[in-house]
Specification:
alpha/beta; 20 helices; single chain; binds flavin-adenine dinucleotide; 657 residues; D-Amino Acid Oxidase, Chain A, domain 2; 30% helix; FAD/NAD(P)-binding domain; eight-stranded mixed beta sheet; Rossmann fold; binds S-adenosylmethionine
Length: 657
Amino acid sequence: MPRALEPAEPILSAEGTPYSPRYDDVYHSTEGGMAQAAHVFLGGNGLPQAWAGQRQFVIVETGFGQGLNFLATWQAWRDDPERCGTLHFVSIEKHPFTREGLARLHAGLQALEPLAQALQAQWPDALPGLHRLAFDEGQVVLTLALGDAGQLLPKLAVGADAFYLDGFSPARNADMWSPPVFRGLARLARPGATLATYTAAGFVRRGLKEVGFEVSKAPGFGGKRDMTVARFRPLWKSRRHAPPLAAQWPDRHAIVIGAGLAGCAATERLAARGWRITLFDAHDGPARQTSAHRAAAMHAHLSADDSLLSRLSRAGNQYALRAWAALRDAGHPVGWHGCGVLQIGEDEAEGEVQRAALAAMGLPESFVRWMSAEEAASTHRAGVPRGGLWFPAGGWVAPPDVCTAQLARAGDAVAARFGCRVASIARVDDQWRALDAGGAVLASAPVLVLANAHEAQQLLPQQHWTMRRVRGQLTTLPAAQVDAIGGWPDCVVTGAGYLLPRAADGTGRVGSSYDPDEGPLAERPEVHAANLARLAGLLPRQAGAVAGIDPAALTGYVGVRTVTHNRLPLIGQVADEVAARTQAGALRGAHLRDLPRVPGLYAALAYASRGLTWAALGAELLASQIEGEPLPLEADLADAVDPARLLLRALRHGQAG
Ligand SMILES: Cc1cc2nc3c(=O)[nH]c(=O)nc-3n(C[C@H](O)[C@H](O)[C@H](O)COP(=O)(O)OP(=O)(O)OC[C@H]3O[C@@H](n4cnc5c(N)ncnc54)[C@H](O)[C@@H]3O)c2cc1C
Ligand SMILES: C[S@@+](CC[C@H](N)C(=O)[O-])C[C@H]1O[C@@H](n2cnc3c(N)ncnc32)[C@H](O)[C@@H]1O
């Protein structure tokens, strides 16, 4: 399967309408894209009336193109005093324009130009997968699904209220109007979902009917006599048809246990949706445990087969950068240093594997490219032994500053209870209770999020979670020693270990060890020595200077990572292990979606060595699940981090009893 996306070119037809040579068709009616959007797509779906008074409304579009339908819908939402609380627009596009291409096509949109510019400002690189963009304080959410509609529709975890079908003409773009696409749409349709498209082609109408839409003709736009409108009213009921519905909560109040990267992000994402949060941490402030260190790097993972980890980490990185930019724009900067990350292989053979992955993926250079050792030395003072992958958007940040910004953004929505350990949790009368060691109720709420890393196992000992504790130690080199070493890189360098560029006080940070968590959590000189050896391996030209440093005189940071069997986190609704055990026989061939879940109980755990990559995306995933909103990830990726996956494995092996 080719990984790279082929972008579209901003070409105009002789009449001045955007035109695709690939499909030999125009992007919208020659009689006006905005007027077509209003008549066919908004009008055909009974919008804006259909979203009036709803808490959330979800539109799914096939074919984002230059986004005129999105812009027209967003503007209609802005203009409507009865608008829904949150408008979700999920759109699939196989050949995205570049940001520059979009800007050229959007010139002259007049009243819509400010919206178009906001869209361009957040426009993603042409990377396969889902990209979530938020506008108007997060009330308008665009989830761009970049890739082929036929392949992506089955992977969307979305419940749709309305559909815009806007492929090119069915005669020239058959794969956008195929039975698999129609089935994919029907799978997402909430009861009574509406659909509109400009075409009245008979096979499209028949195809929609076959998958459960009630189809009718309506007056077409411009030169077209008819168009198609439809409503999802299948004549049959299928147990497997279960698109997520908008959640009904009696009280939007959640308890979050743990105020590290995981818990602070979850707090912020829930607060953004109007939730009140009672946040507990045993320490006397946020980010005082594993998230306490001030030197965390972030870059994506790359593999030739675009593994689950590669896709997840790409999504996590992209989402985190957007989320932090939104915090910055709201006056709460996280202090991100987007200096770029150079990832070198541990040896020449690994370098070859990196090159092969780069070639197989063909991703845009703005995301990742090869950087030779010579370029690294001349442009980033990085005297590395070999070239490697260059992630221009990678960088580093101090996790406590991210946590502080998120809690500040949550503002009055969060009641923080620091210095307060939750000893147990219990569900009583549809409410979760957090209890202290004496059994007194500290707080109760319909939703509880466990964001307390490996300590979650103490609160829920029966879960199949197998979280390991892995000790890690970082070394801080004083400014004078960094001066003495000379030639310190101005980017992050990773390989067998990593180093960060100098902090504002001139210090340099080098990491980090990865050992079983045994003995007291105190810094060990032999680990500082091992970190110095890592530094010498990353910068061999400076090895002599590094050898002169006394590890016994160094300080740094030591913490414990919480790591699952496959290093992927546990994010999502917690499984009801008791109920699953009683039905173990029946669930032996089950899928994740069949497993019983504990109402209102969610996990954001086991962020291992990638807390920055998982925390923001994990929080958005949880909040979307809690609200029944479109997920920001493809379903197979959400499954890969599902906290019930180990229970499922045990059930399949007959070991859950
Ligand atoms: C040496 C080292 C280097 C690292 N480098 C990087 C890096 O470069 N990039 C990166 O992305 N990640 C890195 N990580 C990983 C990253 O730091 C973690 O993934 C992240 O901090 C985990 O966050 P968390 O919120 O899950 O856990 P924590 O930060 O540990 O937060 C859990 C919180 O829960 C609280 N808690 C637990 N139980 C209870 C209870 N019962 N009641 C109340 N409070 C409770 C604890 O007090 C704690 O504050 C590194 C980790 C280490 C150790
Ligand atoms: C008519 S244009 C969409 C116009 C768009 N809705 C707008 O408002 O600007 C059709 C779009 O479908 C996209 N497309 C074509 N085949 C596709 C496929 N198989 N999967 C996803 N998108 C596809 C094209 O690249 C093109 O951008």
